Amino acid sequence: MFYQQEKQVALQAVSAAAQLCEQVRRSQSSLAIAKPDRSPVTIADFGAQAIICQALAAAFPEDPVVGEEDSSLLQQPEMADRLAQVTHYVKSQVSSATPELVIAWIDRGNGKVSKRYWTLDPIDGTKGYVRGDQYAIALALVEEGEVKLGVLGCPALPLDLERPDINIGTIFVGVRTQGTTMTSLSGGQSNLIRVAKSDRLESRRLVESVESSHGNITLQAAVAREVGLDLPSLHIDSMAKYGLVARGEAALYIRLPFPLSSPQRENIWDHAAGAIVVEEAGGRVTDMHGHPLDFSCGSTLNNNQGIIATNGEIHEAVLAAVSKLA
Ligand code: AMP
Ligand code: MG
């Protein structure tokens, strides 16, 4: 079986990062700091990136990592306390951690897209994380522009949305040609998951962002209606949305630009792990024009507009609805 070592290392690293994130959230140190682009970051984003980059550096020293965070904010003199906090939490997972090593590990995540690379979002959905809602730790391996492995840790996601109070914490793993599995973050059996046929009642819905500014909500709702998804939409933060499509709790995750002509492009780390999780569960993922996502052209999806992830069955109908209504 290909990618077994990559899978083990990635699973272990994402699980350790998930523990750190939950520990920080429980201790209520998960206050957001504003980055220069005004997006939020917390000490857990830095800690998770440090843990995962350290593990990848040890196992695959040649592989670049293209991650969301860098250490420049943490290195400012007035941030010394935060750096000490990050180091404290990283140390609980990697005992050799020092402030200097933590900085170096975080910045190992500032590699370039190349023939083979990893891409990492240490906390996707930081706004959800800070609010106490859903978030994801997302790590993917890309070779020749194609995602080969994706690990999506969702520490606040129950194994079954119908039973929201038990088995909280889910990890999804998709490996090219080997399927997608789902496991509880607290351990136990891994099960292969599949997307659901659209006639399954509970999957007849769309899942989209909580943040209305992250998509084109009017058009997204119109597309869902056009293809017959008649249940109320689910609103969930982060790439956990891909997990819901992969395990049949929604038939469609749609993310359209607003305005449609917006020059802004999606980040690779916001989609790589989720896309393979859906594809290997039997679904389809393209942009709004039906083009495959192109992970070979830098840290953003420059050749793609919008994201459509479906159970496969309704994909062509969704593309037709988008082109009719957009
Ligand atoms: P979600 O949890 O689905 O709302 O997605 C969170 C991701 O949205 C973050 O990782 C950001 O990279 C991304 N994001 C931030 N602002 C925007 C925006 N205006 N449009 C689309 N995505 C955005
Ligand atoms: Mg993100």
Question: How would you describe the overall organization of this protein?
Answer:
The chain folds into 2 domains: about 5-190, 2-Layer Sandwich (Fructose-1,6-Bisphosphatase, Chain A, domain 1), CATH 3.30.540.10; about 200-325, 3-Layer(aba) Sandwich (D-Maltodextrin-Binding Protein, domain 2), CATH 3.40.190.80. The model has no long low-confidence stretch (mean pLDDT about 95). About 30% of the residues lie in helices and about 20% in strands. It has helices at about 5-25, 45-60, 80-90, 100-105, 125-130, 215-225, 240-245, 270-280, 315-325, and strands at about 35, 40, 65, 115-125, 135-145, 145-160, 170-175, 180-185, 190, 205-210, 235, 250-255, 285, 305-310. Helix 1 runs antiparallel to helix 2 and helix 7 runs parallel beside helix 8. The protein has a 7-stranded mixed beta sheet with strand order 3-4-5-6-7-8-9, sandwiched between helices. A 5-stranded mixed beta sheet has the order 11-10-12-14-13, sandwiched between helices. The chain has a two-stranded antiparallel sheet with strand order 1-2. The termini are far apart. The site of magnesium ion has 3 residues, from strand 4.
